[in-house]
Amino acid sequence: MTDLFTTIVSSPVARKVGVPQPTRLRRYEPGLPLCEGPVLVAGGGRFAEGIAAWLASAGVATVATAADAANRVGAVVLDLSTATDPAELDQLRLLGAPAVKALARNGRVVVVGTDPSTLTDVAEVTTQRALEGAVRSLGKELRGGATANLVLAQGDAQGGVRSAVEFFLSGRSAYVDGQVVRVDESTSPDADALRPLEGKVAVVTGAARGIGAEIAKVLSRDGATVVAVDVPAAGDALAAVANEVKGTALQLDVTSDEAGRRIVEHATSRHGGLDIVVHNAGITRDKLFVNMDDDRWRSVMEVNLRSILRMNEAILGEGGLADGGRIVCVASIAGIAGNRGQTNYGASKAGVIGLVTALSRQVAERDITVNAVAPGFIETEMTARIPFATREIGRRMNSLQQGGRPKDVAETIAWFVQPGAAAVTGQVVRVCGQSLLGA
Amino acid sequence: MASQNTPRSTPPAPRPPRRVAVLGGNRIPFARSNGPYAKASNQDMLTATVDGLVARYGLAGERLGEVVAGAVLKHSRDFNLTRETVLGTRLHPTTPAYDIQQACGTGLEAAVLVANKIALGQVDAGIAGGVDSASDAPIAVSEGLRQTLLAANRARSAGARAKALAGLRPGHLVPSIPENVEPRTGLSMGEHMALTAAQWGITREAQDELAAASHRNLAAAYDRGFFDDLVTPYLGTSRDTNLRADSTVDKLSKLKPVFGKGDGATMTAGNSTPLTDGASAVLLASEEWAAEHRLTPLAWFVDAETAAVDYVHGDEGLLMAPAYAVPRLLARNGLSLQDFDFYEIHEAFAATVLTTLKAWEDPDFCRERLGLDAPLGSIDRTKLNVNGSSLAAGHPFAATGGRIVASLAKQLHEAGGGRGLISICAAGGQGVVAILEA
């Protein structure tokens, strides 16, 4: 997706004359180390010790203070989950600032707190809520591909916190910045670190191209058997994706009444079950609100929202998604911030967020998690067609000063669906490099 | 391993034949020649088709027993078309392949061959297919130029080579383009059919009705999603380009006849198949292989028969061979013509279907030509070509068999069981017919 402008502004000449150059982000590859450099774990909350022990067992060097690190610090994990008074927020600065100063390229700051909604004491709620403002601001200050994110624990269980911290430390979260993830007390089984989705059957809609194709590839790389779904008219591209991931292609229109039943039938009869569903299929039909016609409004609602509601009936019905299964929806930054000309699209994607919130509670007793990613500016064929000026603004106006890749969205989804992420549900994670839009 | 040296007293008993399952198929939309696939080669189209099948059934990296396919219009460089195709697909490169050619019967004959090997236990699974491009047709040099060039190639000295090349004449430069004619009669297939249609008194109205029904049925099948798991789009085309969903007898009746002579001519471009580009493939396997791969048999490939007629010296029509093949197949299987839930009679021309049906109803023909005591009788026309056939879909010669086998198998599966008859006529006075059952 390299256009002429990108070629010029990223050329050595441009670099010499001082055009700001986005950092090449550290992206996950199986087998690469979790972080580049030692991890400073501090803060003394109820998770710090467990995180340090887990990092050590995973072969990641840890340090207690920035001064202990011989060179640069790969990441900083600050556990303030037991802070109860605003005065304790000082720790964030005292422990964090020296480490952030020594942070390596593509470094990470992960703050662990307690979900304020689980607290009642005013001072405690105030303290924990304050963390979010600090983290989001820090995200905007960090340079060199570094990110800052917040994990909020809803209890004392270590598993969920560990899974979220691991995600934020790793290259899987390359384009995830300034985000807050809440984790509950669910426990999760062990999974193979390199192929966490081994033995799982995953359905990805809209898999013929763009983000959907990348989701299929990443889930397959992580061990899943992938059923690639797209409309019959996209069947040739779909076949190529299905063959590349050694999965199967299922041509269907997600808006048809039969879609959910056919997905379940295909997954169970061909692959022996259904563990993961990624509702990725989506369309845009932009028009200013006053000029929006029936067809544009309705087709966007049908494909992006109503089809998911309908398919979920079969997917969550008898013989459908297994207990402990995973559903991931693809929302959008437009569903959070809104976009000119996208009242239909914005409504559908905001609706998806509502769907995820409500459905996650409804299926919690079956240990099924429901989450959403909200992509920001992702380099795809679709964004390549945006007019030049708008595209450059969208691309640069975020803390990482660059567009994301389809793989970044896929990696976040691949984390949501891991067995280890059982404690992560009802969450919306933006994959936007901390875009200024909707922040 | 002492037993290796022990001579066996008797050869092993032959294994009993196995049931052969049709597991599914794939084709690219068929396109009228010189349309969207004008620049696609046979190998391009067959590769896309097999890859679509591989994707649908999760066969990437699988080694199959064999892939058998062919093309009627074929470049000499494509002598190993199917094997070259396999090497370009996601099938495992150790999957063997071979080419066959039996004119329009190619696709069905390929299925027969694969099915027979599966039945005998020689392979467990295979793909049968066919492809044809009337657009990317082979053009040969003239016979004069060819002989001259070969002579020059044989020459041992520069002088001799110059002498050979001096034999070139301007007329030699006119290329030789493939023609849709029977080599032994010089008549086109349409002209042959027109003779037969006139002989059997097939009316223009009946032909147009059959053509309109073909378009209607094919359009309806697309609309209800019947082809969602039978067709994979290709080069931006997702439906057969010959399909006219709004075709009516009235519209068809306005077309001028193109085959036959004078006022009695009945065959038009509307009730004859157009030259078409396309490819199809069918996945066949043993029950065990299907179960191991968690695939549901759509139908069983029960039996097949091929017949040929003497259209050169005898007085039989060029496309009448299926009329002979079917009764032999019925007799072998103890069935009557009425024992079927679906009939797939390839619509080379509307008149072909109508003549064949009329012949089976005709006591004289059945007695004298087929040697039967009583006519085979008529069929329930509502069971004929229920999802459209070649008049609407088009007819890339070798690809038609695969289209029909896959569609009929799915139709039988959807119906929850039943029996289907396939009948395909072919150039050279041949016909291939088969029975599927679910």
Automatic annotation (TrEMBL), chain A:
Against Gene3D superfamilies, the record matches this protein to: NAD(P)-binding Rossmann-like Domain (3.40.50.720)
Q: Which domain of life is it from?
A: Bacteria
Which InterPro entries does this chain map to?
KR_dom, NAD(P)-bd_dom_sf, Sc_DH/Rdtase_CS, SDR_fam
Q: Which residues form a coiled coil?
A: none
Q: Which residues form the Ketoreductase domain?
A: 200-381
Q: What family does this belong to?
A: Belongs to the short-chain dehydrogenases/reductases (SDR) family.
- Name this polypeptide is given: 3-oxoacyl-ACP reductase
State the taxonomy lineage. Answer: Bacteria, Bacillati, Actinomycetota, Actinomycetes, Micrococcales
Q: Gene name, please?
A: fabG4
UniProtKB/TrEMBL annotation, chain B:
Mitochondrion in keyword set: no
List the protein's name: Acetyl-CoA acetyltransferase
Name the domain of life this protein comes from.
Bacteria
Question: What range does the record give for the signal peptide?
Answer: none
Which PANTHER family is this protein grouped with? ACETYL-COA ACYLTRANSFERASE FADA2 (3-KETOACYL-COA THIOLASE) (BETA-KETOTHIOLASE)-RELATED
Protein family: Belongs to the thiolase-like superfamily. Thiolase family.
Where in this protein does the record put region Disordered?
A: 1-20
- Entry keyword set: Acyltransferase, Transferase
Question: What gene name is listed for this protein?
Answer: atoB
Q: Name one Pfam family in it.
A: Thiolase_N
Which positions fall inside the Thiolase N-terminal domain? 20-288
Cross-referenced InterPro entries:
3-ketoacyl-CoA_Thiolase, Thiolase, Thiolase-like, Thiolase_C, Thiolase_N
